[in-house]
Design a protein that fits this description.
about 400 residues, Growth Hormone, Chain: A, mainly alpha
């Protein structure tokens, strides 16, 4: 549950923000552009992730970044309107960046004490809090928006972010950083480079940067209701409570599978599955029934993809890395870069060819890239995961990196 604040803020950006903006009369293609801008720190935010591995403990960074995100999100909802879209976007951008750093701090902290045998399970439950919590938070926002002021909704979200940091008090005490503040962009960056240039990590970057499992249409379902002739009430419940359940079930299923089969294979397979759902939706009748089953299935497969991603990231980083937050931030940046550019591409598909253009853009990008990666990386993906904590001398990921005293 320590990742819940991240899920709340990102879930708001993905689901509630498009809903609120389209109801304010903002065109969907402009909504897609705004969402892509706000989500962009999930890509370039890695530039600041070395801060999370230096100076203060990761627990302290969790609290600091959560406070900044809470303040900016509340202020953004106070200003939210077509006339103030620029300042609102800027505030949401800062909130998103703060949550990216928060997620890096929590993930790096979690990597310290999670053995390989539990990485799949931890990833599954992490995504229950992340995706499921985000969907439920969005449901609350969309349900309350017609009845109360966005000002009070913003204050409520800020309070939930604050409460969401409390589970970090139950995590084992984080290790003291191996680097001082002055080493942020010197020794810490060098350590990250040496830990990330292994063959295993480079394969991970290839998987994450590709659009194979970006499942970017998840960001726009709440704005597709009118195209599917679906009532606002149905859109709220399906993209809120319905998707919270389906993503949580998908994440748990993905976490279970990630402990038993190749995590890279699972990641790419989920992308192909999501692509097939989008392809089917593109040529299905654009009715409320199609919207309901399409959104639920697509979000369920997204849960599988995210659980596979987290488990693979923990596997590549290991337990002893002095730069775990930065490494995991780089992996997150890679996959979020794919989500951001695919969100923009889906929006362009809609702008030029309507709903079918959006869904076909999403589908073809996933199926083609995932299939090519499966063919090119088949031998690497078939390998049984190595528990690097049991084999510290193996040159895999950051577990090959020197211990804290050596650093």
């Amino acid at each position: 549950m320590a990742i819940f604040p991240f899920g709340l803020v990102v879930g708001f950006t993905i689901t509630a923000l498009p809903f609120l903006l389209t109801n304010l009369g903002v065109p969907l293609y402009r909504v897609a552009t705004t969402s892509a801008i706000v989500m962009s720190p999930t890509f370039w935010g890695f530039l600041l992730q070395p801060v999370m591995d230096t100076g203060l403990t990761r627990r302290a960074y969790c609290w600091i970044t959560a406070a900044i995100a809470a303040i900016c999100l509340a202020a953004a909802l106070l200003l939210l309107s077509p006339a103030h879209l620029g300042p609102t976007t800027a505030l949401l951008l800062v909130a998103e960046l703060s949550m990216v750093l928060f997620g890096g701090a929590v993930s790096g902290w979690t990597a310290e004490f999670t053995p390989d045998s539990l990485r799949g399970s931890v990833s599954g439950w992490t995504n229950v809090a992340n995706l499921g919590g985000g969907a439920l938070g969005s449901l609350a926002v969309m349900s309350l928006a017609p009845h109360i002021s966005l000002y009070w909704i913003g204050l409520g979200l800020a309070g939930c972010i604050g409460l969401g940091t409390l589970p970090t008090m139950l995590l084992p005490e984080p290790r003291k950083s191996s680097f001082r503040f002055r080493q942020i962009f010197t020794d810490a960056v060098k350590a990250t480079w040496r830990a990330s240039k292994t063959k295993e990590c480079m394969t991970g970057f290839a998987l994450f940067l590709a659009p194979a499992s970006a499942v970017a249409a998840i960001n726009l379902f709440s704005g597709m209701g009118r195209d599917f002739h679906t009532s606002e009430h149905t859109v709220i419940w399906i993209t809120g409570a319905g998707c919270a359940v389906s993503t949580s079930l998908g994440a748990l299923l993905g976490g279970y599978a990630a402990n038993r089969i190749s995590r890279g294979f699972l990641y790419l397979s989920a992308g192909i599955g999501a692509g097939l759902i989008a392809l089917t939706l593109a040529f299905s009748p654009h009715t409320s029934v199609s919207f309901i089953w399409g959104a639920l299935l697509y979000n369920g497969i997204a849960g599988v993809a995210y659980a596979a991603f987290n488990a693979l990231g923990y596997q590549l980083v290991g337990q002893k890395s002095a730069v775990a937050s930065t490494q995991l931030g780089l992996f997150a940046a890679a996959t979020n870069a794919a989500i951001v550019y695919m969100t923009w591409a889906d929006g362009q598909g809609y702008k030029h060819f309507g709903l079918r253009g959006l869904l076909l853009t999403d589908s073809f990008a996933s199926i083609i890239s995932a299939s090519l990666l499966l063919l090119l990386l088949w031998k690497q993906l078939k390998k049984k995961p190595i528990d690097a904590t049991e084999l510290p001398d193996m040159p895999v990921a950051a577990d090959h990196w020197p211990l804290e005293s050596e650093a």
